[in-house]
Amino acid sequence: MRARRKRLVVVVGVSVAAAFAACCLTGWGWRIVDTCIWRAMVIFNVPITPADDGYRIVVDKSDHRLSLYKDDDLLRAYPVAISHCGLDARRRYDDLLTPEGKFLIASMQYTSVFGPRQMLLETTTQALADYQSQYGEEAGALIEEWEARHGPLDTIWEVYDYNEAHPGREIWHDILIHGGGSSPDWTWGCVALDDDDVIELFELLQRSRYRGIGVLVIIER
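^ thats the sequence. predicted structure below, dont judge the formating
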């Protein structure tokens, strides 16, 4: 209960900071606020709230295309690269495939080793289901033990900590939308755009309610 109260306090604080920034800041000020919000979410394991404001991304793996919508309007479409391992959906930590399903953007990051911007996806719900399918009762026991000590394993931030404590029994995670080039397929499960395109996408997403965080991302084949 204490952990959930702390989360609530942080969520309120993040919302107030974002509202203040929207009224007072531009340029580098926004960068600082965005980065502070992201770090606070990581430190306090804050779950991702859906933006629910009409923005959504659809990635078609077969067509190698990322489309950005606002309500029913197509705003932009970009070519993308996906996993170099093929079109199948990710199911395991080590298969390096691009997942399929519905996810939320968990963070908007101004630096990346793969181009000028990156957006981390919240994949925990689907990844946990795949983890339990793979390891069965062992997965259930490991998760139960973890939650007894640390609280709910229900955010991407917690998955990073869990994986560090369980080498050889990791949950798949760390799926990004980033730059680095849209051809040929070369990623380890992420979705890659050309660098100019990922900058434009990033800036368009910052028009959404939470400056990109919580925007729905649908990956399909």
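DSSP finds six helices and eight strands in the chain.
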